[in-house]
Specification:
single chain; alpha/beta; Rossmann fold; six-stranded mixed beta sheet; globular; disordered N terminus
Amino acid sequence: MSSLQITAGDRIIEPMIALAGCTTQQRIVVAGSKSMELMFELQRRGYLRAAATGNCGRPAGQYDAALVDWRRRTLPALEPALDWLANFLNARAVLVVWVDAQKAAANQSLRASLERRGFVVEQGIVHQYGCALSARRSQAHPLQLAA
């Protein structure tokens, strides 16, 4: 008798892909304690250019998207990870950070942390397994000048 086990990682992968707007042709780097599992799940779904932080190479702005699973970790521990990860992202890359469901103040702290690093938060979701924000570098959003 076999049973199909669905991990929480499987449950968050679809919303993360949707937030990032990833295509199977894009290069994706996955970070977090389950990065290898999530990378294999992405590859199983046809995202063959996905890599985990353990096998992503040297930082050269080569990735189009970063999916960060930061559940069961503190926001202060995310700060150095974001600094390190930003070097792997190209100028138009999207960053999706998934965290445990939190109070509004913690979500504001995450938003502020991304903005301090030059990212503009585009959207967020609240899900049964946590919440996530997607952001792009501010250079990807040129200012619209009023006439």
